[in-house]
Amino acid sequence: MKQAYRDRQDTIAILNTLLDAEQERYRATHPRSQQAWQQGKQHFLYGGPSHWMRRWAGGFPIYADEAIGAHIRDIDGRDYVDFCLGDTGGMCGHAPEAVTDAALRQLKRGATTMLPTEDSLWVGAELSRRFGPHYWTLTTSATDANRAAIRIARMITGRRKVLVFSGCYHGGVEEAHVEIREGRVGLRNMIHPNGIDHDSVSRVVEFNDLAALEAALSEDDVACVLTEPLMTNFGMIPVDPGFHRALRDLTRRAGAVLIIDETHTLSSGLGGCTRALGLEPDIFVAGKAIAGGIPAGIFGLSPDIAERLWAIVPHVNPRERQSAHLGFGGTLAGNALTLATMRAVLEKVLTPANYERMIATATQLANEARRLIEGHGLPWHVTQIGARAEIMFMPKPPRSGADVIAGRQPYLETLLHAFYMNEGILVTPFHTMLLMCPATSVQDAERHTSVLGRFIELLHESGAI
Ligand SMILES: Cc1ncc(COP(=O)(O)O)c(C=O)c1O
Questions:
Q1: pTM value?
Q2: Ligand 1 atom at minimum distance from 233 CA
Q3: Which of 299, 318, 324, 333 is nearest to 152 (CA)?
Q4: Within a 13 Å sphere around the CA of 147, how many CA atoms are in the beta-carbon half?
Q5: Measured from the CB, is residue 143 less than 6 Å from ligand 1?
Q6: Contact predicate 429/56, CB 8 Å
Q7: Mutation test of ligand 1: which of 51, 264, 283, 290 has the most ligand atoms closer than 8 Å to its C-beta?
Q8: What is the mean pLDDT of each run of 10 residues along the chain (465 residues)?
Q9: How many angstroms does the Cα of residue 279 sit away from the middle of ligand 1?
């Protein structure tokens, strides 16, 4: 293997020159998107309707004209293979027929009524069949589902602290905006404390560190541990064998509620990692793709946790005009449109056959990327879990957020992302994660292989590696 790549000053200078050239190429080939972006900045706080949209490495986002299956066409008429898939919100593929038909049917029959529809009965039963017997609630986002799960954990334990793993992301959840800084609870980059004393509401340890976890749970003040089954938001950080068994034992012993957030790891297979790894969450959370791109989140309470909640807030007797505030849920949560599309997703899109297809395509893409990396002797690696793969510029998979911080190559990553955009590939702008949908084809994966090959050639020719 070659000498490990490092962000030495001379290498950084080469990478910056290459990035300038890629951004110039991007501007030249995306005139309409560039003009739209200038216009957007006049009206939107951070240029686009969501601040996340400003993060694309070309310098501005492409403006989407049409998204169908695994492809997006932009307003400059360029075609992309979309491995970003709406940062997982589009994991069903764009405009899948079953979801579109269900949405249109339901829109014509009423989108939201504050009443359940019969679709909800089918969906509730199917969620329990996939993820284990739980009592479910819908929200409009995974963020909202996590917030509700935390609130319930605090209600039933009477405790305050939320324990998360350094490098996590669970949406706009105050308690989870933390990471380890100099051995203590620190705030994530750019996060304002927002009037919250994070020391008193959060505890944070490194992923896969069982000794630290045990110590952090020993003070009997942790209401819940909130975690993904493996970390997907700081590069992919695989989970050590035995970690989940120990996590479950430790949380039970400490009386802390275990919240498993499968918002991203739904891509692992039919029942997420919960089913694949035999996890036993007290509260199961998911969102993003679960309703085919219509905003939705879900959280499910195990029967034991539900009993404990009902002991505090019983089922309402409609004869009593009592307050019905639970402190979570929104007016549009569980609306008829969402239930109709969620049913279509579970019945017709995220099926065993489609998972098999998505995982096979991800395996092809990951193997080809590994072949290129090994062929060129590069100190990089590829992690693949289910339908999701990640290329990381470090020799082996990180075990924790600290490993990611120590090993990441931000200049190289930005350059790759800009190069991808110029070559018709979209990946999530935040790291190099590639997600497959049922419509992602063998040819789409091959396009990625050839673009990655050209990128490596560019690095060789420029002397960056
Ligand atoms: C694991 C996880 N949970 C929750 C969320 C929040 O999802 P949303 O922004 O749709 O509320 C995200 C978003 O990236 C996530 O990755």
A1: 0.96
A2: 16
A3: 299
A4: 18
A5: yes
A6: yes
A7: 264
A8: 58 96 98 98 97 95 98 98 98 98 98 98 98 97 98 98 98 97 92 96 98 97 98 97 98 98 98 98 98 98 98 83 82 98 98 98 98 98 98 97 95 97 96 97 98 98 94
A9: 20
